[in-house]
Structure prediction request, 573 residues.
Amino acid sequence: MTRLRGECVAPGVAVGPVVLRGFDAQQTSRRIAADEVEGELTALRVALDKSREQIEEIKQKQGGALGESELRIFDAHLSYLADAMFVTEIESQVIKERLSVREAVQVVFGKYDRIFQLVENDLLRRRASDLRDVATRMLRNLDKTAVRGGAPANVPYILVVRRLTTADMFNVANEKVEGIVAEEGGMNSHAAILARSMGIPTVTGIHGLPSDLRDGDPVVLDATHGELVTRPADTELADATAAAQRWKASLSERAEPAGAAEHATRDGVAVRILGSCGSAGEAELVRSFGMAGIGVFRTELQFLTERMRPTEDALVAAYRKAIETQLGKDVAFRLLDVMAASRAADGAPAERNPTMGLRGVRGLLRSPDLMRMQLRAILRAGAGVEGIGILVPFVTGLPDLQRVKAALLEERVALKKARIPVAEDVALAPIVEVPAAAMQLGALFNESDFAVVAVDDLQAHMLAADRDNADVREYHEMAHPAVFELLARMAKDAERREKPIVLFGECAADPVRVPFYLGVGYRNFSVAPVRLRGLLKALSRYSIDECRRIAARVLEAPRTVDVQKVLVSIETV
Prediction:
């Protein structure tokens, strides 16, 4: 039995036989003869047609499970398949360079993949991901040999792939994918978004999979903890099977209806648990799981699934749909945090280090038309509704928040003058993910109604460690005393100002850290719906007095290893 560690993309537990895809040995390059060209071009047309048919069928089958924004991902794939530029380039490689159509596809898509990766911005990274998905599907359809890694019909399985792609997630012949393990694939790729929307346990960042696994091997996937167990013992397999069944049941459970009592600690102290989501499908999960509303609605998906910038009316429709799913509960929209969309459209040069460049509010203030369009769309979508919030990402100081607040007031006045219904009371809050904002939280509260702490990003910036980079994962995951000290300081700032503060992100739902959060004063959490069950379990274990004692021990710990000892000791209690 071997335990392999990776990065959680979508939490959950799954058990099943392995199906390997995308690990075939590279075919040797060869030049085709002149009389083979026509046959290769015919194969290209057949692969294009088959790929289009598959995507249309997937859209039809998944129409009830996925929202409009998610389905637009497949529209983007269809547009690439119909793009004359790509098709002509592939044909040119076959005709002029005498490459096989399979190799021509790899050459052309590989070229654009390298270009998009060099540009280094979020939009083009996702376009590169979409291109890889399209190329993968075409290559699967061009393979004239027996399909390797083919799963038996109607048998649930764990999909193991080199790269996380929608082409392998959505296999028309067999849609019984219970879980996914990938060597490569980002947390924010379209495949990752779909995996979370559909509740498919998914882990990425485990390398050397073909050397550890063979088709049909039984495995246990504990995606919540980023763990894959190969050759599990019978007892572990039985326990995991039961856990997987409980996980599936939790996805279909309908928690208490709107207006029910808040969740609470063991001794009855109320805790408000909101949902984090980025699509209509995830918003439905927030409602069906009985959460207190949407704490963070990520607005990037519409910008990233369209080649053209969405219209204001399209945004209004999407935001209104999210609001309607919550049946009167609070909804807070995070303003666009991917500025590549506007910068690429404007022909702006690539940034050398985009993670510390025109991100979030910086990019929005540089593109005021885009920011104001989003503000108007939220104001219009929230007309006649209470509990609407606007979250400002990547705030570093008071001027960032003040400029957005001024724009919001101006747009409300303009809409009212035009006799367009708007939301009357919109709450404004910074997303605290930069240490400078965390240190100045008290001042930020002067211009905001509440604050949202993006724990994962704040920790990444404090420790200078990218959570998506497997090489520095240990640095991002370390229980550094400075992180806990800053979180405690922000909780005190919020208490002094009598303003709500919300913890947001994967780390916010970490059951090991939850007692600390409660102990220093956090009472509001925004987590993915699939994280709710684990968070509730952690709440039920502790009283507030116990949490305060745990928090005091953590804050007294001088080194990372000392903090870890405290957290491990309470986890085993």
Q: What stands out?
A: The longest strand covers residues 13-21. Residues 183 and 207 are 5 Å apart (CA to CA). The radius of gyration is 24 Å.
